[in-house]
């Protein structure tokens, strides 16, 4: 744990090397194949948006990366380490809790429903994991938390309970909470879908800020196509549990190759 | 002292007598609890405050004081101005009265559990009041009420040994009597296991029933 | 007639014994509730099964029979002597702990899964999640059924009089045997039990108010006449995630 208590302002892999790799990942829910032999990779520092019709398995990808669900087949690598497996005696076996936690500490997630802890005030929500998981001192964690809350524009709400905040404010706290862990990868799961329309812009502005000022790799599931076009380096189009097309936002939103992509975009734009 | 199975064998005839009395107490007590509980539940929904209040105070008092002391009261105090009852009958009345204050809550919850929309739909169709109760509300309430009542029957079963304190010879009473007369100790273990053997399958059965009835 | 001597020598000490038995067995039941309740949600299947057996066995056990067994059979079989009220406290604590474990398990299960997921996303261990997220959130949900269980336990303490512990019920019986006059003393007993139950409820409501304030939720409705029982998702009396009943209705 000692390595984690040291300042980690510098992310180890920002040189554009491969950070995430899905290899032949299959996931079924109650016999329904949601992801089918999925292969794709994300390079470090990139901002990748996953688009596609609902039920196409986009959110499942994020949940697999966060180890909230486990793949039925295939492997996922983060930073070259297997996420849900470990090598023992040259064989791949399901990973133990310790291994998973070690790999998982590089990953942060922001949820559609914010999922703030209602039993903690805003500041405590952001401080909790750095203290408990990273072993930061209370002072260090508080400084870090206050900085982040300031960045998301909520420095004055530190002592409120989450239930007193609007959805947009709660989501901005959730972003600060995820960033406080200094993740290499930030997973954004439809982070504006649960918000009233007038609150969406504030959250997206914060995320644009994060994208611009940090080198955090972002994996984003969203229905906000303008936002996707703004921040993405790469857009992946999903359908039927597979990536059917990927490319730069200019190409994907301007002149996609695939008929399904064209149909989908004309329906949502 | 070590365990002696022959004492268990010797106890068995009295054990079965005790089972019979326990079951009588349970059947009688449950019947009273079911009926009286419904009376309380209806009274607590009465529009007249002078009906609601005394019933609320009475049931609240009974529910929050020990059955054991209530049994003593019924057995030793009531006969001085009221009917004098045998230990078993006193026990049946005590059990029934005590748990009627719980079953009344079961009925209340069952009735309140029927969505308001059902009352409104019945009103919209101009169903007469009795028809609304018998055809719309009660059939829906029953699904919630029956498993909960069943659970209280199991609770009553487990509390029924208190009847031994006023001299009713149910399972525990028989066991104590046998132990004291023969200077042995095995009988209480037999009774303890008997309760588990009866109560556990009953609660499993109720859980199955509950899953069937509630959606 | 109830004399001053009776009050001083038997009844008031009896009340004190009742209070002690209540608190000691409540403490034991509380610990067992959490140990068994948490074990019933443990990742290990063996732990879950063992804890499940404890719950099923003690939920099916008659507390009075178990109390007699502890007080009279155990000393015979194992040459162990229990002093004073110990047998009563153990029996009450173990049986009511089983009901309490259902309260703990149910309240933990009622914490939204999303909270667990948020904890995983922040890389908490299971113990950290329980301690910092799940138990604090489940706690206010546990208090109303714990209140109901505590009143049941208070009523249950009267059973210790039957294993010759000189609680207030014992004092009442003694008074009847000595004077043959039973009406005043049994009436008094019922009233004192009710007052104790009322006081316990007040205390639990205070705890609940504080717990809810900590979650930023509205405090529970109080009022002198709101009744002593509270309605929650779990029926403390039958030990079921009740669909109806005292403390069983939503």
UniProtKB/TrEMBL annotation, chain A:
Family matches, as Gene3D superfamilies: P-loop containing nucleotide triphosphate hydrolases
| UniProt keyword terms in alphabetical order | Amino-acid transport, ATP-binding, Cell membrane, Membrane, Nucleotide-binding, Transport
Family, per the entry?
Belongs to the ABC transporter superfamily.
Determine if ATP-binding is one of this entry's keywords.
yes
A GO MF term: ATP hydrolysis activity
According to UniProt, the name of this protein is Ectoine/hydroxyectoine ABC transporter ATP-binding protein EhuA
What is the source species?
Streptomyces mesophilus
The record ties this protein, via NCBIfam families, to: ectoine_ehuA
Cellular location(s): Cell membrane
- Keyword check for Transport: yes
Provide the primary localization.
membrane
Q: How does it sit in the membrane?
A: Peripheral membrane protein
Note the superkingdom of the native organism. Bacteria
Q: Where is the ABC transporter domain?
A: 20-265
Pfam families reported in the protein's UniProt record: ABC_tran
UniProtKB/TrEMBL annotation, chain B:
* Organism superkingdom: Bacteria
Gene3D superfamilies, alphabetized: MetI-like
Is the Cell membrane keyword given for this protein?
yes
Q: Which InterPro entries would you find in this protein's record? A: AA_ABC_transptr_permease_3TM (IPR010065), ArtM/GltK/GlnP/TcyL/YhdX-like (IPR043429), Ectoine_EhuD (IPR014341), MetI-like (IPR000515), MetI-like_sf (IPR035906)
Keywords (alphabetical) are: Amino-acid transport, Cell membrane, Membrane, Transmembrane, Transmembrane helix, Transport
Name the principal localization, coarsely classed.
Answer: membrane
GO cellular component term, pick one:
ATP-binding cassette (ABC) transporter complex
Query: Domain ABC transmembrane type-1: where?
Result: 19-206
Membrane topology label = Multi-pass membrane protein
Its Gene Ontology molecular function terms? transmembrane transporter activity
Which residues are listed as membrane-spanning?
20-43, 187-209
Q: What CDD domains would the database entry show? A: TM_PBP2
Q: Where in the cell is it found?
A: Cell membrane
Q: Which GO terms describe its biological process?
A: amino acid transport
* PANTHER family cross-referenced by the UniProt entry: L-CYSTINE TRANSPORT SYSTEM PERMEASE PROTEIN TCYL, MEMBRANE COMPONENT OF AMINO ACID ABC TRANSPORTER
The similarity comment for this entry is:
Belongs to the binding-protein-dependent transport system permease family.
- Could you tell me what this protein is called? Ectoine/hydroxyectoine ABC transporter permease subunit EhuD
The species this protein was found in: Streptomyces mesophilus
Automatic annotation (TrEMBL), chain C:
Tell me where on the tree of life, at the top rank, the source sits: Bacteria
Q: Where are the transmembrane segments?
A: 15-39, 51-72, 78-99, 149-171, 183-200
Q: Name one GO molecular function term.
A: transmembrane transporter activity
Q: Which GO terms describe its cellular component?
A: ATP-binding cassette (ABC) transporter complex
The record gives the membrane topology as: Multi-pass membrane protein
Report the subcellular localization: Cell membrane
Note the SUPFAM superfamilies from the entry: MetI-like (SSF161098)
**What's a Pfam family this protein contains?**
BPD_transp_1
| Presence of keyword Nucleotide-binding | no
Keywords, A to Z? Amino-acid transport, Cell membrane, Membrane, Transmembrane, Transmembrane helix, Transport
Q: Name one GO biological process term.
A: amino acid transport
- Outline the extent of the ABC transmembrane type-1 domain: 15-201
The family note in this entry says: Belongs to the binding-protein-dependent transport system permease family.
Q: What is this protein called?
A: Ectoine/hydroxyectoine ABC transporter permease subunit EhuC
Q: Which organism is it from?
A: Streptomyces mesophilus
Provide the taxonomic classification.
Bacteria, Bacillati, Actinomycetota, Actinomycetes, Kitasatosporales
């Amino acid at each position: 744990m000692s390595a984690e208590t040291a300042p980690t302002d510098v992310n180890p892999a920002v040189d554009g090397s491969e950070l995430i790799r899905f290899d032949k990942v299959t996931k079924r829910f109650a016999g329904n194949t949601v992801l089918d032999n999925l292969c794709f990779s994300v390079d470090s520092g990139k901002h990748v948006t996953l688009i596609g019709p609902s039920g196409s398995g986009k959110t499942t990808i994020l949940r697999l990366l966060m180890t909230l669900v486990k793949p039925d087949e295939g492997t996922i690598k983060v930073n070259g380490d297997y996420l849900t497996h470990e090598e023992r005696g040259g064989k791949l076996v399901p990973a133990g809790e310790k291994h998973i936690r070690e790999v998982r500490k590089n990953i942060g997630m922001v949820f559609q429903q914010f999922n703030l802890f209602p039993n903690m005030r805003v500041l405590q929500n952001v401080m909790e994991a750095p203290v408990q998981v990273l072993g930061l001192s209370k002072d260090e964690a508080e400084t870090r938390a206050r900085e982040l809350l300031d960045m998301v524009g909520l420095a004055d709400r530190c002592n409120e309970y989450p239930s007193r905040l609007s959805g947009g404010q709660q989501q901005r706290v959730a972003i600060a909470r995820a960033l406080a862990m200094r993740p290499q990868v930030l997973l954004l799961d439809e982070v504006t879908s649960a918000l009233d329309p007038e609150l969406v812009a504030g959250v997206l502005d914060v995320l644009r800020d994060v994208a611009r000022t940090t080198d955090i790799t972002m994996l984003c599931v969203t229905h906000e196509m303008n936002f996707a076009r703004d921040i993405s380096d790469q857009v992946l189009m999903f359908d039927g549990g597979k990536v059917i097309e990927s490319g730069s936002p200019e190409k994907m939103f301007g002149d996609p190759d695939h008929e399904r992509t064209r149909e989908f975009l004309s329906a949502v734009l | 002292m070590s365990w002696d199975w022959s004492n268990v064998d010797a106890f068995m005839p009295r054990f079965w007598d005790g089972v019979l009395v326990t079951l009588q107490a349970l059947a009688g007590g449950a019947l009273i609890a079911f009926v009286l509980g419904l009376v309380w539940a209806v009274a607590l929904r009465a529009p007249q405050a002078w009906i609601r209040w005394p019933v609320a105070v009475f049931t609240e008092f009974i529910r929050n004081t020990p059955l054991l002391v209530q049994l003593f009261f019924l057995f030793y105090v009531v006969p001085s101005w009221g009917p004098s009852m045998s230990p078993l009958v006193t026990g049946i009345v005590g059990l029934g009265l005590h748990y009627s204050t719980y079953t009344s809550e079961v009925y209340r919850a069952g009735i309140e559990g029927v969505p308001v929309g059902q009352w409104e739909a019945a009103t919209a169709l101009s169903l007469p009041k009795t028809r609304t109760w018998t055809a719309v509300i009660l059939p829906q309430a029953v699904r919630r009420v029956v498993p909960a009542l069943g659970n209280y029957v199991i609770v009553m079963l487990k509390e029924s040994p208190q009847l031994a304190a006023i001299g009713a010879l149910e399972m525990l009473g028989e066991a104590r009597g046998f132990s004291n007369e023969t200077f042995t100790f095995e009988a209480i273990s037999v009774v303890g296991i008997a309760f588990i053997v009866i109560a556990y399958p009953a609660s499993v059965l109720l859980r199955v029933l509950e899953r069937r009835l509630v959606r | 007639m109830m004399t001053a001597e009776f009050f001083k020598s038997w009844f008031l000490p009896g009340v004190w014994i009742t209070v002690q038995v209540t608190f000691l067995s409540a403490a034991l039941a509380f610990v067992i509730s959490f140990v068994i309740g948490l074990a019933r949600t443990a990742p290990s299947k063996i732990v879950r099964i063992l804890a499940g057996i404890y719950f099923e066995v003690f939920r099916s056990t008659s507390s009075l029979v178990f109390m007699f067994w502890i007080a009279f059979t155990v000393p015979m079989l194992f040459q162990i002597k229990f002093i004073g009220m110990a047998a009563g406290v153990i029996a009450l604590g173990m049986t009511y702990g089983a009901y309490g474990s259902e309260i703990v398990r149910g309240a933990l299960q009622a914490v939204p899964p999303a909270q667990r997921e948020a904890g995983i996303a922040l890389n908490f261990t299971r113990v950290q999640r329980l301690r910092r997220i799940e138990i604090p959130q489940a706690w206010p949900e546990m208090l109303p059924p714990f209140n109901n269980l505590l009143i049941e336990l208070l009523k249950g303490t009267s059973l210790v009089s039957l294993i010759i512990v000189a609680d207030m019920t014992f004092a009442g019986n003694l008074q009847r045997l000595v004077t043959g006059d039973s009406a005043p003393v049994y009436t008094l007993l019922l009233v004192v039990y009710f007052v104790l139950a009322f006081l316990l409820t007040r205390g639990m409501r205070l705890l609940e108010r504080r717990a809810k304030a900590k979650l930023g939720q509205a405090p529970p409705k109080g009022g002198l006449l709101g009744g002593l029982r509270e309605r929650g998702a779990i029926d403390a009396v039958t030990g079921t995630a009740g669909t109806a009943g005292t403390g069983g209705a939503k």
